[in-house]
Give the backbone structure.
Amino acid sequence: GEKVEQHESTLSVREGDSAVINCTYTDTASSYFPWYKQEAGKSLHFVIDIRSNVDRKQSQRLTVLLDKKAKRFSLHITATQPEDSAIYFCAARVQGGRALIFGTGTTVSVSP
Amino acid sequence: EAAVTQSPRNKVTVTGGNVTLSCRQTNSHNYMYWYRQDTGHGLRLIHYSYGAGNLQIGDVPDGYKATRTTQEDFFLLLELASPSQTSLYFCASSDGGQGDNQAPLFGEGTRLSVL
């Protein structure tokens, strides 16, 4: 079955710098890639997604890039702020597939 | 407002005990999911359902049963709880269906401790 590997377990950045989280997947039939944010002690909240028919999507300070050839996708956060500190999860779903498969999460810490 | 509500929010039980985790969604979604979150493992899919009476097996189903009684309600049952089932459990719902590309909406989670 599909597996999603999230490469960075922790990421520390200074406020105002950029952060990049990388994920790879195994199933070439994967077609949907959402990202979730989990603040300390809270639930997962959707932040941005990308579908396999595009290779880039931007929403304010967040950009997702998708490289289907390399089976890799990444989340870019620009101009980081302390409130960006959280665990970020990538996920993938196979076209017509049953459920999202998640990566192991990246803890992002933004320091002043 | 779309919502997924889990109960209880916290639960402590003993080894061998019975536990039922409840989830209700008011989003008219077809799909509901149970995940467990553990450090180093991310979220792992336990069971899911695409409608009342339907149950699909996830990636880590051992020791868990689930039942979808209505479109709104999805339950996770641990009949002989073990310490390895100590975890944070999330329920989620989505519109689902083939080709569905919507991010599931998550509940607030249930923290379960098995002593």
Summary: Chain A has a mean pLDDT of 94. The longest strand of chain A covers residues 30-38. Chain A touches chain B through 25 residues (CB under 8 Å).
